[in-house]
Amino acid sequence: TIRPVRRSYYDPSSAPGKGVVWEWENDSGTWTPYDMDVGITIQRAYEKQHPWVDLSAIGFCYVIDFATMGQINRQTQRKRRVRRRLDMVYPLVSGTLPKSQSWPASPGAAAAPPVPACTCPQCLLVMSVKAAAAAAGPGTSTLQPRKAAPAKPPATPKPPVPAAGPKAPDGVAAVRGSLKPLAVQGGRRQAASTPALSSAGASGSPPGGVGSGKGSRASLGTLNRSHLQRLAIAQSRVLIASGVPTVPVKNLTGSSPVNPALAGITGILMSAAGLPVCLTRPPKLVLHPPPVSKSEIQSIPGISHSCRKTTKKQAKKGKTPEEVLKKYLQKVRHPPDEDCTICMECLSAPSGYKGPQPAIKPDLVGKLVKCSHVFHLHCLVAMYNNGNKDGSLQCPTCKTIYGVKTGTQPPGKMEYHIIPHALPGHADCKTIRIIYNIPPGVQGPEHPNPGKSFTARGFPRHCYLPDSEKGRKVLKLLLVAWDRRLIFAIGTSSTTGESDTVIWNEIHHKTEFGSNLTGHGYPDINYLDNVLAELAAQGITEESLAQEKD
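^ that's the sequence the OP posted. Answer follows.
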């Protein structure tokens, strides 16, 4: 297995640069450190004396409350303890230190063992850039020679703290390979870099080629973060100036067609060929908006209340299946020479349905009044008995709905309101937030396995619509779909494979607020039109709004 790797730079003023570690308490009572990026975000808010920090902007649905030092799950409201402790500072120098020594090295401590010399074009380029920076004047760190001079060198003052260099682009890790022109001119570059290295080191250091065993070998031990960043930037400028193009390989977590292993192999091969490779981090998943106070939440104009609840609806009694179908059918005395699409037998022959026999003759044929499709009455009654028995009928050929279609959604609650944040692609309006909450329970007679318990994963589920004219229209129709129990159903999850669980029921919702990594977010210019078409397929149109008012 080949996996991509990357190297990250952290500013000395950040949490790892100061040795600050943020941890959360797990279920066993021990402490688990946050990821580096999460810890940096928490520490930045802590230093700015913010009362809390919301981690949804970096893809986590947690809020860190500094007053109580707690982590709150925004969905379940579960709270865990967090703590801030000081640890070893993130390494600022290279090489191996004795075990008794910690980062950073204290003044007067024993020096690290010498690092073996390296003559690859990559190191030669770094050395030449470092030597040029040292020769440029004050404000740059000096290079340490590999061996001490025979004569005792005079004491050198401590170099001044260098000014902060240009910050590397956020979220980008650059992996630079060797360069063929540099390899060809390796000897010349070594010779050219020798005087600069000698003058930058202690006086009296022996001259010689960088790659020679007797020559001095400068290390990167004295480079701090800003110097390393400047080296990377200068190195990239040299590579680009040499005429070799920069080729990006994006989204190494597998969220794009570029497989992580393929991206890693590509980077290795391109580096070996002398090509620079830029590996970019994938964008963050943003599921939730920034925190919203109760005073900022607004009701939706034109829609009464802000919450709907559903309960189990009983099937209409007093009407037999034959009486229900009679409203939607016309008898056909002379059936056409074609097959019934339910039993696949010829319409002129008796029905081929072999299940429980309804109280109707198997050779009777009827035509649906709207779409004019023809079926055995025997087959239609059997299909109705196997469905929701809610007084509605859907043509099995063209899906035309007769009556008011209802579903088998379990009991739950739907909340909806306006929050003062804009969705990507809808910067001119606020956002409608919908919160669905369905608890687990026991399946009823209309469900796949009556009497068996069902699960409800991922609730409450947050969904988002733009607060525009079309967005409010979609919300009104979704309210009708909720009342008719068509938003959710009980079945087998297509993502986890779990059976007897609450699943979406063919009406797509947007569950990402600030990103669109899974396809369930914004911007999506066709979403509102698509969901209107999906609602129409369930028999929910603007005419349904008038029916609900009646």
